[in-house]
Amino acid sequence: METDAAIAYTQEVARLKTPALITAGASIGSTESAHATAIRAAFKSLGMNLNVVPSAFVSAQNRSSWILTV
Predict the structure, then answer these.
(1) Cα–Cα distance between 48 and 37 in angstroms, integer?
(2) Is CB count within 10 Å lower at the N or C end of the chain?
């Protein structure tokens, strides 16, 4: 869910015009990306063989590399 939230905030914040809303959306989007990374790190610490950060940015184009299947 965090991966999809990060993607959604990134896509939607690009449509905003108000600087305060842009800042808020960017902050929330980056927090969601941090959550996705923390979840991946937790699974890695449990012995799952995966990259903690599979790509530099979370986007719709690389979503599949971020999604965990357990």
Answers:
(1) 14
(2) C
